[in-house]
Design goal:
Layout: H1 3-25, H2 30-55, H3 63-81, H4 88-115, H5 121-145, H6 149-171
Helix pairs in contact: 1-6, 2-3, 4-5, 4-6, 5-6
Length: about 180
């Protein structure tokens, strides 16, 4: 990872922690902030994937998968923008599905890292289990509690986790492999 990438990861982590503080201080405006952050994040990721497809991925094997991911993320971002006028339970289910997806991905990465004898597979498994726990809280909050503040707190915990993970990742030493020919 280059120094610029490390700085970008660190600043992104700090920005996410600032949003967590904002959500904790003013939870009454948290739902609107939640929708804005979710929409901007998904739209930015989708647009980035679309640009990546048109610049490079269209020439790659399975490049159309990048195009599909970009289109879906832009679509999900625009869909999340419309969630401000519908019941809050749908946002909790949206959070549940998102965290469930990322927990499955993290657990699968941990199993692959374990198979490849990576020393960091425990951390990946721990992050996957934490995402699964957040997903279960979102489901319980959506079906049982039905509070307006529950999605804000669940999203704040998810952002806290992501912000800390990015800051730690910015300072983590990366392995460099050299190939001799």
């Amino acid at each position: 990872m280059s120094k610029l990438q490390r700085i970008r990861k660190f600043l992104t982590g700090l920005l996410l922690l600032a949003v967590v503080v904002l959500l904790g201080v003013w939870p009454e405006i948290g739902y609107d902030v939640l929708i804005i952050v979710l929409c901007v994040g998904m739209l930015a990721y989708g647009i980035r994937m679309l640009i990546y497809y048109f610049v490079m991925a269209r020439h790659m094997v399975r490049g159309k998968l990048i195009l599909l991911i970009g289109i879906l993320m832009v679509d999900f971002g625009l869909f999340a923008l419309t969630l401000s006028h519908i019941p809050k339970v749908y946002m909790l289910l949206y959070l549940f599905l998102g965290h469930m997806f990322y927990s499955v991905i993290d657990i699968m990465r941990a199993m692959e890292a374990r198979k490849n004898s990576s020393p960091r597979w425990q951390f990946k498994l721990l992050f996957g289990a934490f995402n699964l726990l957040i997903a279960l809280f979102a489901l319980i909050g959506g079906l049982v509690v039905r509070s307006v503040r529950v999605p804000v707190y669940i999203y704040a915990v998810g952002l806290l986790y992501t912000g800390i993970e990015r800051i730690v990742d910015a300072f983590r030493k990366t392995d460099v492999m050299f190939f001799e020919t």
